[in-house]
Amino acid sequence: MPITRTTTRTFSSEDIDVCARLTGDLGSHHMAGHGGRRMTQGALTLSAVPLLDEPGVHMRELSFAFLAPVYAGDTVTASVRATETGEPAADRALLACEISVTNGDGTPVLAGTGVADVPRTLADAAGGRG
Length: 130
Known about the structure:
Layout: E1 3-10, H1 13-23, H2 28-31, H3 42-46, E2 58-66, E3 75-85, E4 92-103, E5 108-119, H4 120-126
Antiparallel strand pairs: 1-3, 2-5, 3-4, 4-5
């Protein structure tokens, strides 16, 4: 059974400022704006994806494409669908992940795949075998 997690997040200008300080991504489209609107950094958009930030989760692989810009004030819905893959282990599980982020209009803004190494308790609690 797959694990599915979905979250919604609205990005602010302050989020863009914090991301800029942490990552050094100070592009003018982030700081001054593009067409009068400040665009989020890719790392900030990716931070909306659930499961990636849960304790003990380690991403072994992550491949994604930015499909459309996300601006300050935009609300995105981020989803990850993960299915256990590989040989089961007593304390860890490998999950193949499908990642999608859409804006408030339903337009895809980020899509990707990955492999997550997670605590067995997380995979079992969510029914990750599928």
